[in-house]
C-alpha cells in the first residue's frame, strides 16, 4: 500500500509540474503569436511605411503572379532560415503563400526568431485573387 501511495504522489507531482509548464508556455505564446489577417486587413497593412511583404512560395509560383513589392523567400529553399535571419526585426512583416499553410509555418518560425510584428494572409494568395485584388506577373 505504501508503494502505491508513493507512486501516486510522484505522478501527482509530475502532473502538477507539467501543468504549470504548459500554463507558462501558453501565456508566452499568447503574447508572441503572429496574427492572421483577412484580405482587406492584409491589403491595408501592406500600405504602411514599415511593411515588408514576403511571399514564401516557390519561384515558379511567384512568377505566376505575386503581390506588388513582395520579396520572394521560398520556404522550401535551403537558404530560407538565413534569409529570414537577415531581416530587420523592427519592421512589420506580411507573409503569404498559396493557401495560408506555408505562410503560417513561416510566420511561426519568424516569431521564434524574435520578430514581433508578423501577419499572415488567411487563405493566402488564393483568397487575395478571389477578392479581385491586383497581382504582378
Your description of this structure?
There is one protein chain. The model is unreliable at 4-30 (pLDDT under 50). A five-stranded parallel sheet has the order 1-5-4-2-3. The chain is α/β, with parallel strands linked by helices and 137 residues long. It folds into two domains: 1-31; 33-130, Oxidized Rhodanese, domain 1 (3-Layer(aba) Sandwich). The chain has helices at 2-31, 39-45, 59-63, 80-85, 101-112, 124-130, and strands at 35-37, 51-55, 71-72, 92-96, 118-121.
β-sheet strand percentage: 5-15%
Instruction: Give the overall silhouette.
Output: globular
Radius of gyration: 20 Å
Number of E-type strands: 5
> Within the CATH hierarchy, at the fold level, what is the topology of the largest domain?
Oxidized Rhodanese, domain 1
Mean pLDDT: 85
Low-confidence stretches: 4-30
Write out the CATH superfamily name of the largest domain: Rhodanese-like domain
Give a quick summary of the entry.
The protein is an alpha/beta fold and 137 residues long. The protein contains 6 helices and 5 strands.
Write the layout of secondary structure elements.
Layout: H1 2-31, E1 35-37, H2 39-45, E2 51-55, H3 59-63, E3 71-72, H4 80-85, E4 92-96, H5 101-112, E5 118-121, H6 124-130
Index terms:
137 residues; alpha/beta; 6 helices; globular
Amino acid at each position: 500500500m505504501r508503494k502505491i501511495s508513493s507512486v501516486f504522489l510522484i505522478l501527482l507531482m509530475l502532473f502538477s509540474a507539467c501543468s504549470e509548464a504548459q500554463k507558462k508556455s501558453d501565456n508566452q505564446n499568447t503574447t508572441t503569436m503572429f496574427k492572421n489577417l483577412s484580405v482587406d486587413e492584409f491589403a491595408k497593412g501592406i500600405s504602411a511605411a514599415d511593411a515588408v511583404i514576403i511571399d514564401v512560395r516557390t519561384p515558379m509560383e511567384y512568377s505566376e503572379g505575386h503581390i506588388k513589392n513582395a520579396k520572394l523567400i521560398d520556404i522550401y529553399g535551403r537558404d530560407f532560415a538565413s534569409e529570414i535571419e537577415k531581416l530587420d526585426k523592427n519592421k512589420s512583416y506580411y507573409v503569404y503563400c498559396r493557401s495560408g499553410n506555408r505562410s503560417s509555418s513561416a510566420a511561426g518560425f519568424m516569431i521564434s526568431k524574435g520578430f514581433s510584428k508578423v501577419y499572415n494572409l488567411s487563405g493566402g494568395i488564393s483568397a487575395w485573387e478571389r477578392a479581385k485584388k491586383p497581382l504582378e506577373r
